[in-house]
From TrEMBL, chain A:
Keywords: DNA-directed RNA polymerase, Nucleus, Transcription
Keyword set includes Manganese: no
Gene3D superfamilies, sorted: Nucleic acid-binding proteins (2.40.50.140), RNA polymerase Rpb7-like, N-terminal domain (3.30.1490.120)
Protein's name according to its UniProt entry: DNA-directed RNA polymerase subunit
Organism ancestry: Eukaryota, Viridiplantae, Streptophyta, Embryophyta, Tracheophyta
Listed CDD domains: RNAP_II_Rpb7_N (cd04329), S1_RNAPII_Rpb7 (cd04462)
Regions crossing the membrane: none
GO biological process, one term: positive regulation of nuclear-transcribed mRNA poly(A) tail shortening
Family: Belongs to the eukaryotic RPB7/RPC8 RNA polymerase subunit family.
Superkingdom of the source species: Eukaryota
The protein's role, per its UniProt record: DNA-dependent RNA polymerase which catalyzes the transcription of DNA into RNA using the four ribonucleoside triphosphates as substrates.
UniProtKB/TrEMBL annotation, chain B:
Keyword Nucleus annotated: yes
Major place of residence: nucleus
Lineage summary: Eukaryota, Viridiplantae, Streptophyta, Embryophyta, Tracheophyta
Localisation: Nucleus
Entry-linked InterPro entries: HRDC-like_sf, RNA_pol_Rpb4/RPC9_core, Rpb4-like, Rpb4/RPC9, Rpb4/RPC9_sf
Record family assignment: Belongs to the eukaryotic RPB4 RNA polymerase subunit family.
Name of the protein described by the UniProt record: RNA polymerase Rpb4/RPC9 core domain-containing protein
Keyword annotations: Nucleus
GO BP term (any one): DNA-templated transcription initiation
Superkingdom of origin: Eukaryota
Keyword Zinc-finger: no
A single MF term (Gene Ontology): nucleotide binding
GO cellular component: nucleus; RNA polymerase complex
RNA polymerase Rpb4/RPC9 core domain: residues covered: 16-143
Amino acid sequence: MFFHIVLERNMQLHPRHFGPHLRDKLVSKLIKDVEGTCSGRHGFVVAITGVEDIGKGLIREGTGYVTFPVKYQCVVFRPFKGEILEAVVTMVNKMGFFAEAGPVQIFVSNHLIPDDMEFQSGDVPNYTTSDGSVKIQKESEVRLKIIGTRVDATEIFCIGTIKDDFLGVINDPGAAV
Amino acid sequence: MSGEEEENAAELKIGEEFLKAKCLMNCEVAIILEHKYEQIQQHSSESDPTSQVSQVFEKSLQYVKRFSRYKNPDAVRQVRETLSRYGLAEFELCTLGNLCPDTSGEATALVPSLKSGGRFVGDAGDEKIEKMLNDLSLIKKFE
């Protein structure tokens, strides 16, 4: 789920940047350092939308660098256990399939795929129902529920299920009902 | 990690920080990211042609464009206004706006927390949910 939140960060700036464009240099450094990163607490920082406040700079003893506390607003993506969302299938194999929702990768194990769907290997590996009416393959859009999340240094990884009601392949709204 | 073992979006247990935060639907994020992308394109053609957006940004932009139910900014605004009338939590509002369930049965399966808190109790509650979903589909029809 995407959120719009306010975060704070202490930015260190080398004296060579001091001058009339100090604020701009600080903001570009903030964007370069923070956009695209990921933390367990806030999820992925997708984009910084504004800088709320830049506090007074504090000169570090001995180095001359100055630390500025910066408060900024940003859009983050944070997946939650129990959350239901839509994703695109990126890879299918006999263990299950991988899907992507924005910056997050989700794995759905074959144990959490409905029993009436079987894995079919071949050029385009897929999971299909016995009557062939529903198929999950690369680029399919599915609705899944996140049942677990794991955070490592640079990203969040999730496991999901499509075994509950109202989950599974999303019907193309253009197709007949 | 305190509290992590209890995390469960189905019961709105997402931590106080996120319960109080502003949640964004995919269609709203699409508007924000597209605007930012245009700004960056303009800026980079002037000064620094190497300034690129991060992979996280690209993937998120592609994702929200693909999974936005409403494309028109006015419709997006109307969706938020309509859903705000039903006393939903931000997280519930955005989940409904993203998934657009057809029936109250689907809505309560996707957002189980709707049934707690005494807001949508019994048959009257289901009717209220149906009305809410109807209002949403009208916006889509006239988008």
